[in-house]
Write a structure and sequence with these properties.
Distance between the termini: 146 Å
Shape: elongated
Structural class: alpha+beta
Radius of gyration: 41 Å
Strand content: 25-35%
Order of helices and strands: HHHHEEEEEEEEEE
Strand order of the largest sheet: 1-10-9-6-7
CATH architecture of the largest domain: Sandwich
Number of helices: 4
Largest sheet: 5 strands, mixed
CATH class of the largest domain: Mainly Beta
CATH topology of the largest domain: Immunoglobulin-like
Number of domains: 2
Number of strands: 10
Oligomer: single chain
Amino acid sequence: MNGNPEIKTKKKFYQKWWFWLIVVFVIGGPVYSLVINGGFEYAETPSAQESQAASMPESSTAPKSSSASSQISESVPPQSDSAPVLSFGDTFEFDDLEITFTDNVTWHKVDNEFSDNDGAEVFAVPVTIKNTSQETHGLNMFSYKMFGSNGTQINSMGPHFDDDINFMGDMRSGAQISGFMYFLYDGDGDYYIEFSYTSRNKVEVKIPITK
């Protein structure tokens, strides 16, 4: 018989079975839940748009009252449904230009055998333009449209005539030029020139024509 008694060593706490059982429940439980539920429930996470709406004051997301609407209308000028309609003798401001049409209309015919409008009857409306800006400036031919007596848009006949207003170039500040705008005649009635470079800056000039 061995005279040395058997020495029993005490197990560390992490070597005991109950420690690992606790670890499994503490760590394994949440992991198992995530796997079963397909990860984090993203549907419960508010979107960026919802978060922004939630952070905004209640008044901005709720339907606006009549008082709020009136405050907006005061800060933003109302857009007119129809542009001012002017006629012969009226002077108006447009794009830093002072424009005046006069009623001494003259009649002409297109003389260009290479044009589809060769021999067509046209009338010329005198116009005077003054540059009221501080820069060299002139009328942009793309800033206006012409309409015939039946209300449909027509092309300018100006390219057939040297004294058309668009061929007179720009002006220095305070300078003034006079020329004509040429319309293709399609019958008696009211012709129009619509000046517009923004929806809020529009002017119509009525040209009543009776041959």
